[in-house]
Specification:
Elements (H helix, E strand, L loop, with lengths): L1 E2 L2 E8 L16 H11 L3 H15 L15 E7 L4 E7 L2 E7 L18 E2 L3 H7 L11 H6 L11 H13 L7 H9 L18 E4 L8 E5 L14 E4 L1
Helix pairs in contact: 1-2
Length: 241
């Protein structure tokens, strides 16, 4: 989703603080945080601050599916504007953020921030050491420390992330990556990125080119639920400037 030159995507994640009962208590859903970030943030950095401030104050939780009963999760976010991009991952009211400074980056159903923690919730590392999650000697690794012992509701939650990372890196190998390349990634069914059916079907896809000082942004959105029917030669997508 996009507003004021900022785009945000989110994914379900599970971690050592996931709890099937307390996570169903109505608080802010990931999509609530996403919409408020877009509404109140004029840059990616501002949107990140909005989301983390609300997360720390109100927490996250509630029924996350109208298909699967009693389904809940924590959230990760990919936040970008014309000038910078951030990965933000959460565990209950804790969070860590990585500034994307080179190459390609994706998120999916697992914690993926490693040692590069550029911003985080106050007292995160002290709490991890006190709880015995981290020895305080090895470099702090968010995905290992907070992801350890995670019990989620998906099998192989890191599978889509690993496949997506591979597809992005292959597409960008020659130093070029087009809208068509991104559409190809979003169409991929073998990786599970595109899910045409089941309990968790893909509900839509978006590709955003954020432009530059001399070029306007362009956003490609599916006009149907299935990315596999979305193509440059077809009529099942729309572009908006």
């Amino acid at each position: 989703m996009i507003m004021a030159g900022v785009v945000i995507g989110n994914e379900a994640v599970w971690n050592r603080l996931s709890c099937s009962s307390s996570d169903l208590v109505s608080r802010l859903l990931g999509m609530d945080l996403l919409r408020l970030g877009l509404e109140r943030g004029n840059t990616a950095r501002e949107a990140l601050k909005v989301i983390t401030s609300l997360l720390e104050k109100y927490g996250q939780g509630g029924q996350c599916s109208d298909i699967v009963p009693d389904f809940s999760y924590h959230n990760s976010f990919l936040i970008a504007d014309q000038k910078e991009a951030w990965v933000l991952e959460t565990a209950d009211r804790l969070w860590a953020a990585e500034k994307v400074e080179s190459g390609c980056r994706n998120i999916s159903n697992c914690l993926s921030i490693g040692n590069k923690v550029d911003l985080c919730s106050g007292g995160l590392m002290e709490m991890a050491r006190e709880k015995g999650w981290w020895d305080g000697v090895e470099a702090f690794n968010w995905s290992v420390v907070l992801g350890g012992g995670a019990c989620g509701e998906l099998e192989n939650p890191d599978s889509r992330w690993r496949c997506g990372k591979k597809l992005l890196e292959e597409g960008a190998r020659q130093g070029k990556f087009s809208v068509e390349d991104m559409i190809g990634v979003l169409r991929d069914e073998k990786s599970g990125i595109n899910r045409p059916g089941g309990d968790f079907p893909t509900a839509g896809s978006q590709v955003s080119v954020l432009g530059s000082d001399s070029a306007r942004a362009c956003h490609w959105l599916t006009a149907s639920l299935a990315p596999s029917r979305w193509g440059v030669a077809g009529g099942t997508w729309i572009g908006k400037q």
